[in-house]
Give the backbone structure.
Amino acid sequence: MKKEFPFLLLALSTPMYSQIFSFGVKGGIPVTNAFPGSPAGTYLRRYIVGPTAEVHLPFHLAFEVDALYRRSGLGATFTTYQFGGPPSPPVEGVDRTRINDWQVPFLAKWEPGARLVRPFIDGGVTYRHVSGQDQTQFFSASATPFFSQSGQPTNSPNSAGVTVGGGFLVKLPVVHISPEIRYTHWPSPPAVGTYMFQIMSANQVDVLVGFTF
């Protein structure tokens, strides 16, 4: 019996470990405009993706931490003339600015009930790091830029915000799916923008879907 005890302990601890910890990936799209001061004629490209992990606690509680990356950016069209050669009619140009936006939420969760589909609410603090700002101008008919520059945000790239959210958890045999709407308020949003000085929005709403195992 003594020789069999370590194997019995391992067999019992494996499902216990899988119930306490879960890992996966989370993705989604922003609902709100990160650049509320952008003029008419601009277009936005944004997405959200990153790993997620949870620690499941008693009393339907859990602790979640994510590392969510978004490539935020915007572009505007304008009228210009090609350089060199004889005078030519004006052509359409594109001015595009992009940044890297990393957000790491630390959230407490409450998941009442024991059904396969159950609601949850969460809240906590999100830390943010903005970097890799670049601006490119090119003719709309060509992908070759005629102007390009890069830099960093004009103020501190690090900030923190308050996050609350809610959704529901679907517990399937292999994977858990958790759609969620999440709101974050940034007391001090970063200042970004190269061709026009812009302050990112202080209010952020995201639609996210998590897949954990």
Notes: The first strand starts at residue 21 and ends at 30.
